[in-house]
Design goal:
Blueprint: H1 2-17, H2 33-40, E1 69-70, E2 75-78, E3 85-86, E4 94-99, H3 104-119, E5 125-131, H4 135-145, E6 151-154, H5 158-162, E7 170-174, E8 179-184, H6 191-202
Parallel strand pairs: 4-5, 5-6
Antiparallel strand pairs: 1-8, 2-3, 2-6, 4-7, 7-8
């Protein structure tokens, strides 16, 4: 009975406390049939070619105040291929969501990030960073949830480590100068909370 109770409590604890790599990171030791099938399917995500240019009508570079922390000096691959992306070359305003398919709170909030991407198109950019995950898992979540914004790949969880956080999901708010204005690790974000954080840290009002 105790073992059955513990098994039932694990998903609840993951959803409340965030997810660490030990909670289910998928390791790829070599290609399998399922991994090869995922690699051969069209990616649900957008490519990353536009990430170095600012959104068409984003907030002015000075909208968030003085200088802030710069993004870590990491270069990550784009899920769709093409040239790797240097994080410090990202042009905001941007909301960067760090997620993994094995993380329940990540899965819960991803649709809200897609809706933010749709509503705020031209004002800010939503970017995903798939962290400590398998390609198959990330692709399946993108297909199942209709996630279309660009996604970078960070299998070594380097961004999480550079931000000195132990768990995901993480959401990084980046201003028009490429400075980090806020790193949110409070748990699952919904539409209202996302809109509030965007207004507070990026000076943008997102359409309802």
């Amino acid at each position: 009975m105790n073992r059955r109770l513990a098994a039932l409590l694990v998903p609840v604890l993951l959803a409340v406390g965030g997810c660490t790599a030990g909670n289910g990171t998928e390791k790829e030791s070599g290609p399998t049939g399922r991994q090869e099938a995922a690699a051969n399917r069209p990616s649900p995500f957008q490519d990353c070619s536009a990430l170095g240019t600012p959104p068409a009508s984003g907030a002015p570079a000075s909208a968030s105040g003085g200088a802030g922390q710069v993004l870590p000096g990491l270069t990550l691959d784009c899920f769709t291929g093409g040239a790797p992306v240097a994080l410090r070359e990202l042009r905001g305003p941007a909301v960067v969501n760090v997620w993994a398919s094995w993380c329940p709170p990540c899965r819960d909030e991803l649709p809200a990030f897609q809706r933010l991407s749709d509503r705020a198109a031209g004002q800010l950019r939503v970017i995903g960073v798939n962290s400590g995950d398998s390609r198959e898992g990330a692709q399946a979540i993108g297909e199942d949830f209709g996630i279309r914004f660009p996604v970078l790949v960070d299998r070594g969880e380097r961004l999480k480590q550079e931000l000195r956080r132990k768990a995901i999901p993480l959401t990084v708010f980046v201003d028009g100068q490429g400075n980090v204005r806020h790193v949110d690790s409070s748990g699952t974000l919904d539409d209202a909370r996302l809109a509030e954080l965007v207004r507070q840290h990026l000076g943008l009002t997102v359409p309802a």
